[in-house]
Amino acid sequence: MSDEYKPRFSFEITDEQQLRANRLLSTYGLRKSVFSIILDDVLDLVEKHGHIIIGVILDGAAKPHEIIPSIAKAERKAKL
């Protein structure tokens, strides 16, 4: 066993979210890669604009794909 500590970010998800993730993000390492980028974008937004960003997302005033840069860029490219 390695003595090297690796921080983790974890939270509960629904059964439906797990089924979708297993089906759509099944490639080894893909979840970490995708969600690391999204986490960085969210943290950057909070650093730049404050916790209002969290309120806007949680309130439903804006969809994450409208304000998280990496998701917005992916959606634009997918529409081409």
Protein model, in words:
- It is a single chain.
- With 80 residues, the protein is an all-alpha fold.
- It contains 5 helices and no strands.
- It starts with 14 loop residues before the first helix and ends with a helix.
- The relative contact order is 0.08.
- It has a domain at 37-80.
- Helices cover 66% and strands 0% of the residues.
Show the helix and strand layout.
Elements: H1 15-24, H2 30-49, H3 52-59, H4 64-67, H5 69-79
Shape: globular
| Total DSSP helices | 5
Q: Profile the largest sheet.
A: none
Strand content: under 5%
Proportion of residues in helical segments: 55-70%
The helix-and-strand class reads mainly alpha
Distance between the termini: 47 Å
Could you name the ranges where pLDDT drops below 50 across 5 or more consecutive residues? none
- How do the SSEs run, as a string of H and E? HHHHH
Strand tally is: 0
**Averaged pLDDT, please?**
92
Any idea what the radius of gyration is? 15 Å
Summary of the model, kept short:
This protein has 80 residues and is mainly alpha-helical. It has helices spanning 15-24, 30-49, 52-59, 64-67, 69-79. The mean pLDDT is 92.
Q: Which properties best describe this structure?
A:
5 helices, mainly alpha, 80 residues, 0% strand
